[in-house]
Every structure is written in C-alpha cells, then in structure tokens.
Amino acid sequence: MTGYVVEPMDLPTVAVAGTDETFPVRRIYCVGRNYAEHAREMGSDPDRDPPFFFMKPNNTIIPDNADFPYPSKSENVHYEMELVVAIAKGGKDIPQAQANDHIYGYACGLDMTRRDLQIGMRENGRPWEIGKAFDDSAPCAEIQPASKIGHPSTGAIWLKVNGETKQSADIADLIWNVPETIEYLSGLFELQPGDLIYSGTPAGVGPIVAGDVMEGHIDGVGDITIKVV
After folding, report:
1. Using an 8 Å Cβ cutoff, are 48 and 20 in contact?
2. What is the rounded distance in angstroms from the CA atom of residue 104 to the CA atom of residue 201?
C-alpha cells in the first residue's frame, strides 16, 4: 500500500449549531461586490452585471470567538461581513427553483481582506489571492441548518467594531440573491457537498487594528465575534 510522503492535513470543518456534528469544508467561493452600495464605495458600477467570484483555501476558516492574527505585508486590513451558504448536495447548472434543495444551512462569516494588496493587484491586472486568500481570512460561525431556520431572504445584516456599527443593511439588498448565485456559480463549477459560498458584503467596509473586536449579526442566522490580535 502506498503511503503519504508527508502527513496529510486535517480536513477543515465548521460547527453545526445545536449538535456535536461538524460540516467538512471543501471549497470556499466568494461573490464580489454583491451589494450596490459596496460596489459604489469600491469605485464600481452597481449595475446588475453577471456576478464574479474568487476563492479562498478551505484552511483559511477560523471559528466564532477565535483570534484573528493581523496578517503580514499589509497596513490596511478590512472586515467584510457576509451571509455564508453551506452546500450539502452537489450539481451543475442548478436552476434557481431547485437551488434551495442543495443548501444545508447558513452562517455568519467574515471575508477578511488585505485591501492595500488587493487594490495593488487589481490596478496591475493581477489576481487577488494575496489580498483575499491569506491565512485565517475566512472566519465562520456555526452553521444553522436550513431544516431549522428555513432559507432566509430578508433580514438585517450588520457588523460592529468595538461596539460601533460599521456595516448595516438587509440581505434582501443582495444584487444576486442566493438561488441566483447558485445557478450562476454552478454553471462555472460543479458544486459539491462541503462547499461554502460567501455571498458578498454590504457597504461600510473599513480597517481594523490589533485589539479590535468585530461583532457581526444576521437576523435568523446568528452572530459572530472575532478579536484582532
């Protein structure tokens, strides 16, 4: 029997609310600029162009109440509060009408971003990985099963830093809602059980520094608290 030449990594997981079970994370897909006001603050036209996506490695996940280490090579790290969608049933070219059948549940997440590096890459026509896919850049709270909470399409989403509200919107404001996003994304990639989709962030993104405490909330989904160290 052939063995591994190095020790295989542990599979990253996210806790499932109210159980001792965990959700194994395969891939993390992120939707860019999926709230109109955030698109405007980033200097883009919020018209309903086709959505675009970027990815984070699955081992960038850190849990609720974890410490977020301020990353190297950056002096402008931003929070981005997001609704996270957990996929339980794979598929290609999934119709909107069937999208909810593929969803296991929902969670609160943060798409942490080295904004200075991201913008530098964007201005030079280069990939975003160093700005988006760095270690610990995908905090994710426990997943709430859709069998318990349904499929939220409206509800407040907000983020506070040190008790001060920085982002405040409604998930109904998504340019591309969750079923539409799944339909489009599954035309580009065959979705698989274990995939997470970070659905985009509202306006109000901004910098954090060591010692800050980020607290996020989505109505009907839950909360997330992360400390910057």
Report:
1. no
2. 21
Q: Report whether 71 contacts 77 (CB < 8 A).
A: yes
How many angstroms separate the Cα of 165 from the Cα of each of 40, 46, 158, 173, 217? 19, 23, 7, 18, 11
User: φ and ψ at 125, to 5 degrees?
Assistant: 65, 30
List per-residue pLDDT tens for the chain, 229 residues long.
679 999 999 999 999 999 999 999 999 999 988 987 755 665 666 666 788 999 999 999 999 999 999 999 999 999 999 999 999 999 999 999 999 999 999 999 999 999 999 989 888 999 889 999 999 999 999 999 999 999 999 999 999 999 999 999 999 999 999 999 999 999 999 999 999 999 999 999 999 999 999 999 999 999 999 999 9
Total residue count of the chain as it appears in this document = 229
Q: Which two tokens stand for residue 198?
A: 């970070």
Tokens of 98: 């069937």
10, 27, 48, 160 from 189: Cα distances, Å: 24, 11, 21, 34
The helix/strand count (H/E) of the chain reads as: 6, 18
Sign (positive or negative) of CA dihedral 46, 52, 53, 54: negative
Q: What is the pTM of this model?
A: 0.94
